[in-house]
């Protein structure tokens, strides 16, 4: 029996209409759809594609929201093992992931482990949240010779990024938003933000000064660099 193939499928930031034609085809053709499960009971990626994968066999993949590398690595090893067992049965598996699988995606760790075991795996790109947020705000990420710095804002130590000469996209801002707003204010900067872009409960802020408290995990802040023209 021929082995199956693993696909890491980016399903976009939240709006089901942003699912690419290729992603849709892969999901329709897959024998099993692997679904990341953060443990909160909310399966955001699955909600985006639920109409496409209706009736499919689903493989729950626990990926807890912790930073214990040893614990996470163990989870990824277990998921990779379960997926490889399906591939050995000749089944094709599509692992769905928010946004794009190459941009701060949990899936990529499973992808590497499956490849390391000698199996075939392919990345299917999706619309990244930073692009969807810029479109929602009606602005660009970069123009002309501008540079873009993408920062995982939920991690500590963003100060050096704030002083870097580039436009900035802060992803997964969440509870760090008040601190980020204050640090930007100290530098005479402000940002625009969309929380839950394309999802239920989407909220748009054209200034971080509109924030009264933190927002959810799926929050992206865009900050434009202001250079002094001479």
TrEMBL record:
Sequence similarity: Belongs to the precorrin methyltransferase family.
Give a single Pfam family match. Answer: TP_methylase
Enzyme class per UniProt: transferase
Organism the protein comes from: Pseudoflavonifractor intestinihominis
What are the record keywords, sorted? Cobalamin biosynthesis, Methyltransferase, S-adenosyl-L-methionine, Transferase
One of the entry's Gene Ontology molecular-function terms is:
precorrin-2 C20-methyltransferase activity
SUPFAM superfamilies reported in the protein's UniProt record? Tetrapyrrole methylase
Q: What lineage is this protein's organism placed in? A: Bacteria, Bacillati, Bacillota, Clostridia, Eubacteriales
Signal peptide extent: none
Record's InterPro entries?
A: 4pyrrol_Mease, 4pyrrol_Methylase_sf, 4pyrrole_Mease_sub1, 4pyrrole_Mease_sub2, CobI/CbiL, CobI/CbiL/CobIJ_dom, Uropor_MeTrfase_CS
Q: Where is the Tetrapyrrole methylase domain?
A: 5-210
User: Source gene?
Assistant: cobI
Matching entries from NCBIfam families are given as: cobI_cbiL
Q: EC number(s) per UniProt?
A: 2.1.1.130
Source taxon at top rank: Bacteria
Its annotated pathway? Answer: Cofactor biosynthesis; adenosylcobalamin biosynthesis
From the Swiss-Prot or TrEMBL record, give the protein name.
Answer: Precorrin-2 C(20)-methyltransferase
Q: Which GO terms describe its biological process?
A: methylation
């Amino acid at each position: 029996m021929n082995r199956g193939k693993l696909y890491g499928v980016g399903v976009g930031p939240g709006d089901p209409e942003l699912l690419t034609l290729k992603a849709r085809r892969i999901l329709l053709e897959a024998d099993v759809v692997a679904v990341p499960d953060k443990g909160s009971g909310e399966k955001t990626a699955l909600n985006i594609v639920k109409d496409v994968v209706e009736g499919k066999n689903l493989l729950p993949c626990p990926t807890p929201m912790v930073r214990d590398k040893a614990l996470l690595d163990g989870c990824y090893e277990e998921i990779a093992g379960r997926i490889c067992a399906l591939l050995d049965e000749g089944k094709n598996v599509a692992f769905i992931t928010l946004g794009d699988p190459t941009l701060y995606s949990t899936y990529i760790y499973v992808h590497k482990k499956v490849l390391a075991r000698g199996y075939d795996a392919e990345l299917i790109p999706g619309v990244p949240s930073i692009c969807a947020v810029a479109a929602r705000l009606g602005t660009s990420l970069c123009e002309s010779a501008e540079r873009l710095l993408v920062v995982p804002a939920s991690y500590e130590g963003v100060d050096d990024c704030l002083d870097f000469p580039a436009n900035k996209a802060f992803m997964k801002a969440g509870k760090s938003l008040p601190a980020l707003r204050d640090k930007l204010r100290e530098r005479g900067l402000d940002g625009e933000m969309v929380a839950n872009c394309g999802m239920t409960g989407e909220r748009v802020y054209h200034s971080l000064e509109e924030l009264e408290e933190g927002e959810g995990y799926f929050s992206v802040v865009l900050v434009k660099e202001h250079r002094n023209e001479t």
